[in-house]
Design brief:
CATH class of the domain at 62-163 and 330-421: Mainly Beta
Enzyme class: lyase
EC number: 4.2.2.n1
Protein name: peptidoglycan lytic exotransglycosylase
CATH superfamily of the domain at 62-163 and 330-421: RlpA-like domain
Helix content: 25-40%
CATH architecture of the domain at 62-163 and 330-421: Beta Barrel
CATH topology of the domain at 62-163 and 330-421: Barwin-like endoglucanases
Shape: globular
Order of helices and strands: HEHEHHHEEEEEEEHEHEEHHHEEEEEHEH
Keywords: Cell wall biogenesis/degradation, Lyase, Signal
Organism: Sphingobium lignivorans
Radius of gyration: 22 Å
Strand content: 15-25%
Length: about 425
């Protein structure tokens, strides 16, 4: 996903001022994490719901919520070891095979990167990742049964939405009727890890820019669409329809159909650090639309262009893009995401690359998924955004996905007991 921002050295005085500004801005809350594929998609056409599936049974042996010495938010939320994974894994299905394939893709990252959730270390994944090459997709269920255990985070109550890879009409060079720019990430957009300045701010990040000796919020959507970045050579392409581009931003990646019949694929290249606002809920609350489908929203925006532009600008978040020339779209791990197998999750609760077992009231979304992505509105222990690929079916399923049920996180065998044995987690005596 986003590459590290290269910034010019600053004078010591400037960085003292920057630090003071960062600490002041910390109260604004956590910024949208990098690698966002887009925040929660606006609802679209909802397919007829499948028959509900029962949620997973409550599990015994809860890990108590630790106090101030908690090793991370996942443990602080409370962890429960689920029953034998053999009884929980679904039978061999296409989704299970796709999840196996996606997990194998994630392994190089799992064995190298730091787990933000604090649940695992890179070494915890070594055994499973070393073994995955010796299993075939036909034996996917046996692989997950042998190398993983299931844990419930918090109450395990899951909520899942969907996202997809939209395709819109566009062009590489500005022309009449194709003049809404897609911008690459500006060099003056700076990420700040507040944890570098204070232990009390660990895990909190902000984005902004330097203005003289001050660190200030970056331009919001209204400023950027109004031309704040024009003339800086940041345009990578143009879209025919600003409303379609708005929804492509929400998804975080997509395809542009070019005048010559070709396709240009674009992916996430950063976000301006401003909070995301879902305009669908905003419009329903104001009585502007009833159902809240993506089609309803688009129709109203087109019928009311001036008011519609103002409403879109109430979502101050703005996404920057880069052209994708290899496999994609890419998730937060910088790896291709798999339709029907990849899911966006909150990395402070779910290790990126870990399997997640969902049992939901929408059968098409139930089963094993791999957490390979993040999203600005995907926050919390059991909040997920399922990826469905490209095309009209993907658009319909993702746009209408709103599923509830339960979730289990699959971790390498022995992880739960290791977390229990940590000195900063004191479980009650085992009866």
């Amino acid at each position: 996903m986003p590459a590290s921002v290269q910034s010019r050295p600053a004078r010591p005085g400037r960085w003292l001022a920057l630090l003071a500004a960062c600490l002041a801005l910390a109260a604004c809350g956590r910024m949208i994490p990098p690698g966002t594929p887009g925040a929660t998609p606006e609802p679209g056409v909802r397919p007829q719901p499948a028959q509900p599936r029962p949620t997973l049974p409550p599990a015994p042996t809860p890990l108590p919520t630790p106090g101030e010495t908690a090793i991370g938010p996942a443990v602080a939320a409370g962890m429960t070891l689920a029953p034998d994974i053999e009884t929980l894994l679904p039978p061999d299905t296409e989704r299970l095979r796709l999840a196996f394939r996606a997990f194998r893709i994630s392994c190089p990252s799992l064995t190298r990167r730091r787990d933000q959730s604090g649940l695992t270390s890179a070494s915890d994944w070594q055994q499973a990742c070393a073994a995955v090459a010796s299993f075939s997709e036909a034996n996917a269920r046996e692989f997950f049964r042998r190398y993983f255990e299931a844990v419930q985070i918090g109450d395990g109550k899951a909520f899942a939405t969907g996202y997809y890879e939209p395709e819109i009409t566009g062009c590489r060079q500005r022309m009449a009727g194709c003049d809404t720019p897609l911008y690459r990430r500006p060099q003056d957009l700076i990420d700040v890890d507040l944890g570098l300045f204070s232990d009390t701010l660990k895990g909190r990040r902000i984005r902004g820019k330097v203005d003289g000796t001050n660190f200030v919020p970056y331009d919001d959507r209204a400023a950027i669409t109004g031309g704040a970045l024009a003339g800086r050579g940041l345009e990578i392409a143009y879209a025919n329809d600003p409303i379609e581009l708005f929804f492509l931003e929400i998804q975080g990646s997509g395809r542009l159909r070019l005048p010559d019949g070709g396709v240009m694929r674009v992916g996430y290249d950063g976000q301006n650090g401003r909070d995301y606002t879902g305009i669908g809920k905003l419009m329903k609350d104001r009585g502007l639309i009833q159902a809240g489908s993506m089609q309803d929203i688009m129709a109203w925006l087109r019928a009311n262009p001036v008011e519609g532009r103002a409403i879109m600008n109430e979502n101050k978040s703005y996404i920057f893009f880069r052209e994708l020339t290899g496999p994609g779209p890419l998730g937060a791990l910088g790896l291709p995401v798999t339709p029907g197998a990849s899911v966006a999750a909150d990395p402070t609760f779910v290790p990126l690359g870990a399997p997640v077992l969902l049992s939901l009231d929408r059968a098409e979304a139930s089963g094993l998924w791999i957490a390979q992505d993040t999203g600005g509105a995907i926050k919390g222990a059991n909040r997920f955004d399922t990826f469905w690929g490209a095309g009209e079916r993907a658009r319909a399923v993702a746009g209408g996905m709103s599923a509830r049920g339960s979730a289990l996180l699959l971790l390498p065998v022995g992880t739960y007991q290791r977390l229990r044995s940590r000195q900063d987690v004191t479980p009650p005596p085992i009866p």
